[in-house]
Known about the structure:
Distance between the termini: 34 Å
Shape: elongated
Structural class: alpha+beta
Strand content: 15-25%
Radius of gyration: 19 Å
Largest sheet: 4 strands, antiparallel
Number of helices: 4
Amino acid sequence: MISPPDGEALSLGAAKEYLRIGHAGEDGLVADLIASARARLEAETGLALIARSVKRRYDRWPSGVTRTGLRLVPGPASALVSVETADADGGTQLYTARFQLGGGRLRLKPFVALPPIPPGGHADVTFVTGYGAAADVPEDLVQALKRLVLAAYRREAGEALPDEVRDILAARRERRI
């Protein structure tokens, strides 16, 4: 992660209201539960709820980058910052102009050669991901966060996701035929 998210997708006030807590005595606990729930939800979905900059490193180019595009995770990827290669000695070469971002996928532009990754080197792809600010996070994901915070607050959190959260995430999954 290059820059962390600026805040949480669920405010402390909204979480306390959902939990029906009317005092400040558990603010620290609730704030920790919100951060934990966001991290778990992001891990389960492969999404970043709040905007942040992320760098992914590749020792070799994945095959999809030239054809269908490489899905950048976590999503939704909204802006390409840079694409550069580095050799074993740390020398870098910038190739951002050869790539484009569309539909959350990194693609090589048409009629452009894929830059080589030097032996012992790597390629770094830096991008902005997330829905934006807290107000931009889809309401169903905010509801899933609330349910995760509630389950953790009640100490119902276990390995399995609560049924309500599982239902919300199932409704978001892409169906492929």
